[in-house]
Design a protein that fits this description.
With 65 residues, this protein is mainly α. It contains two helices and no strands. The radius of gyration is 16 Å and the shape is elongated.
Length: 65
């Protein structure tokens, strides 16, 4: 993530419970990707014939080297 945990500005209109659930889910997804690789969790669109995410994850920095 781009900010340190606990260093975010919240609003009076934010749903704090939903935000905490999303943060926990994001953390677990990051742990799975770290353990099993970038292609372990992808959006469904990434499995279509025109998608490039799975291929680009195998490249260095997303580019041919």
């Amino acid at each position: 993530n781009l900010i340190h945990e606990g260093e975010e500005q919240i609003s009076l209109f934010d749903n704090i419970i939903q935000r905490e659930k999303e943060m926990r889910l994001t953390k677990v997804m990051d742990e799975i990707r770290t353990r099993f690789g970038k292609n372990s969790i992808l959006r469904g669109i990434s499995y279509t014939s025109v998608a490039t995410a799975r291929y680009r994850n195998t490249l260095l920095g997303g580019h041919k080297s």
